[in-house]
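Weekly sync, protein design subgroup
Attendees: M.S., D.O., the rotation student, P.L. (late)

Item 1: inverse folding check
M.S. brought a backbone from last month's batch and wanted to see whether the design step gives back something sensible before we order anything. D.O. pointed out we never logged the input encoding, so this time it goes straight into the notes. Structure tokens as presented (422 positions):
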């Protein structure tokens, strides 16, 4: 089966002439359209706001585009806070959701007046010491057990390191109230990459009911529920993208059933989608450089797992289009591999593709979320450039490719590396 590709061979070759492969390319129009569809689906909730999960694609050029569409940023580390700060964000434009949090991270988040999302009850005193308790704060919930939809298990919160129990959450709310907190939010992330459209409605009902219970037990004022991330993208051609209008309508049904009749009356809804925002709108473009015939047929490309580790790490499927050969028969079986000294460095195994020869350009789909972001430098491999395909059809370099000097930069305190080699 085929998937549509937002880049053709002529565009890819034009880019490759300017920015050597491999490189990431992002579709600005697709990113903007996706955010607008999300906002329309939740337009019934006047306080709705998406906080882009920066960890999915930490590039300030893309973050600025996303912010222009009305989104805040969900940060989980000091450097992600720096990126948000660099594009001028502060206050309720930043949600800081972290775990095992260093003191400096809390202090920076409080300096920016970001909304803090606490992962554990022991962090209450830690935050009080390192940054102070804000008037509005969020708490992360872990319900334990298995998370299921219509009887099918979708996740195992009991095995996750994130969040706190309901009893811990109640104790934390009482303690935070005594320390000056006045408004509260509740957050939970129970499953990842869900294309089942009932995920958000099921999670929303859990959190709405929890907010009502905790309000009844503590009297605390709850102002929002953060449904976090988890809405997935259709990696495989046969997968169906989640219907956002259906999701928004079903969340509203739960809201009207649980929140409206309660003492709370209303809640703002927040989200922190990352993969949904950029995932399907980013591709890794790589060139075939070798063909190997042994017990299997191998296509060697100039990208590797250091550029996109999801297939090697998770066995994740990423569709591959051989650019310029979209209409050729899929009559060859290949493993598509990179050049790492690791046998799991494969973008595809036993994949049916058209005949590939050295020089062909391959587009690896759905790499815009947790693609570049998870890159690394094993075997001395260098991270690639990132390019934006703009709405007007032009392109813009939004991150240059690394050089050997970047790889060796952490030795700049000494003269062990000869300057002429940099």
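Designed sequence read out in the meeting:
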């Amino acid at each position: 089966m085929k998937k549509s590709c937002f880049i053709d061979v002529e565009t890819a070759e034009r880019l490759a002439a300017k920015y050597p492969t491999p490189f990431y390319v992002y579709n600005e129009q697709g990113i903007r359209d996706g955010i607008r569809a999300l906002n329309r689906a939740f337009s019934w909730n006047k306080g709705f706001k998406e906080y882009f999960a920066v960890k999915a694609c930490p590039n300030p050029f893309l973050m600025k585009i996303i912010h222009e569409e009305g989104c805040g940023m969900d940060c989980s580390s000091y450097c992600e806070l720096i990126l948000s700060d660099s594009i001028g964000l502060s206050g309720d434009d930043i949600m800081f959701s972290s775990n095992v949090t260093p003191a400096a991270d809390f202090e920076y988040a409080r300096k920016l007046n970001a909304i803090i999302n606490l992962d554990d009850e022991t962090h209450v005193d830690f935050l009080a010491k390192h940054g102070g308790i804000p008037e509005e704060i969020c708490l992360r919930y872990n319900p334990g057990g298995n998370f299921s939809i219509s009887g099918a298990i979708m996740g195992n919160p009991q095995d996750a390191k994130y969040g706190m129990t309901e009893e811990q959450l109640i104790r934390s709310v009482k303690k935070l109230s005594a320390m000056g907190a006045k408004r509260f939010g509740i957050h939970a992330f129970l499953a990842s990459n869900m294309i089942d459209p009932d995920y958000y409605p099921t999670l929303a009902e859990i959190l709405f009911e929890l907010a009502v219970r905790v309000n009844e037990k503590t009297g605390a004022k709850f102002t929002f529920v953060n449904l976090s991330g988890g809405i997935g993208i259709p990696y495989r051609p046969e997968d169906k993208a989640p219907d956002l209008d259906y999701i928004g309508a079903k969340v509203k049904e739960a809201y009207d059933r649980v929140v409206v009749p309660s003492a709370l009356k209303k809640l703002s809804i927040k989200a922190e989608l990352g993969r949904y925002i950029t995932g399907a709108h980013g591709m890794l473009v790589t060139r075939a450089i070798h063909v190997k015939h042994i017990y299997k047929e191998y296509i060697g490309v100039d990208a590797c797992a250091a550029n996109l580790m999801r297939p090697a790490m998770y066995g994740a499927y990423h569709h591959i289009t051989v650019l310029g050969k979209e209409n050729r028969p899929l009559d060859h079986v290949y493993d598509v591999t990179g050049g790492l000294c690791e046998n799991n460095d494969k973008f595809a195994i036993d994949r049916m593709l058209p005949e590939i020869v050295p020089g062909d350009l391959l587009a690896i789909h759905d790499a815009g979320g947790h693609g570049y972001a998870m890159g690394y430098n094993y075997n001395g491999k260098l991270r690639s450039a990132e390019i934006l395909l703009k709405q007007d059809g032009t392109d813009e370099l939004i991150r240059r490719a690394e050089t050997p000097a970047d790889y060796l930069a952490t030795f700049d305190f000494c003269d062990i590396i000869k300057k002429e080699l940099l």
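Discussion: The longest helix spans residues 199-218. The CA atoms of residues 291 and 299 lie 5 Å apart.
Action: P.L. to compare against the previous round before Friday.
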